[in-house]
Amino acid sequence: MGTSWGLYTTLTGILAVLLLLSAMEKKGALDSRQVSVIAVLAALCAAGRAVTGVGLLFLQPTMFLVEITGFVYGARVGFFTGAMTPLISNFFMGQGSWTPWQMLCWGLVGVSGAVVKALFPQAGNKTLTAVCFLWGYLYGAIMDVWQWTVFMRPLTWQTYLLTWAAGFSFDSLRAAGNLFFCAALGHQTLKILQYFHKKMNIQYLER
Questions:
Q1: How many C-beta neighbours within 10 Å does residue 174 have?
Q2: Are 112 and 131 in contact (CB under 8 A)?
Q3: Structure confidence by residue, pLDDT tens digits, 105-126
Q4: Domains in the chain: how many in total?
Q5: Residue 67 · residue 186 · CB < 8 Å
Q6: What is the CA radius of gyration of the chain?
Q7: Residues with Cβ within 8 Å of residue 44, at least 6 apart in sequence
Q8: What is the mean pLDDT of residues 76-101?
Q9: For the packed helices 168-206 and 157-166, what is the interaxial angle rounded to 10 degrees?
């Protein structure tokens, strides 16, 4: 039964990622600029996650970068950058049935940046920092669904709460790390990405 639930949970994560990718693709194919941005930022995020993840599993200076990517470049670039981050870094940290769920979570972090931009066009680093802090807990709550369905029996809301409570301290560490890194590096990162976004658009128009 445990194996079956593990398989179902993995397939659910894969299906969710594929559905979101399909929804993103309906807006049209990514252009070369967007592909370049995704490749560079996903590699940077994956490297940061892999390097720090060895000894600082819950303190990784990458989630804020995915969120800001979505804020500057939009939901599609944010989602693809986020989803690629664990896919690449897990080749060093370990692949498993958790990978699709991590891809889903990280992709949604990127989408959340675009949502913040749509709701609050003039939002600055304080707003992004607050959202990134919340993602420390949201990420844990979503990943707990995977852990709950794979390892816990019976599957009741009480056992889910036990799973969530067991990971709360780790979620708090992740949230604190997100808060620190976004507060310390977010403003400058936002300026850099906005600069390159503007420069790329100008060069595209001048062709």
A1: 22
A2: yes
A3: 999 999 999 999 999 988 888 9
A4: 1
A5: no
A6: 17
A7: 65
A8: 91
A9: 80
